[in-house]
Amino acid sequence: MGEAWIAALFALFVWWFSTGAILMLVRHAERAGPRAPFGCTLAALPLLALGIWGYVASLPATGLGGAYAGFLSALAIWGWIELSFLTGTITGPVLRRCPPGVPELERFLRAWGTIAYHEMLLTAVLVLMWLYGAGAENAFGLWTFATLYLARISAKLNLYFGVPRINTEFLPEALGHLESHFRISRLNWVFPISITALSFAVACWLERLHTAGTPGEIAGYALLTAITGLALLEHWLMVLPLPDAKLWRWMLPAPKQTRRTTTRPEGHHGF
Question: Reduced to 3 states, what is the DSSP secondary structure of residue 117?
Answer without folding.
Answer: helix
